Amino acid sequence: NDTDLTQSIIELLIASGTHTDCLDDQRRLPEQCAKHTKIRQLLHSKRSMSLKCQCTHLIISQEIQYESYLSETLKKFILLHQF
């Protein structure tokens, strides 16, 4: 069924390093966009943050001014995690 296929695709993406703590253009986490409870639970259970993600969340929560100090790549990474 479609839910099983979706679950398989999500597991493949997660195994490939997808960041499940990134936000969409409406500032929603993937688990908030999922329509099926099984998929929401899967996304929530796999949401672990790397040190890079943890640092990003710290920068955001503490409102640290980073724009003058980081590369464009890191700035984009931070924007993907902004709540």
TrEMBL record:
This is Uncharacterized protein. The lineage of its organism: Eukaryota, Metazoa, Spiralia, Gnathifera, Rotifera. It comes from Adineta ricciae (Rotifer).
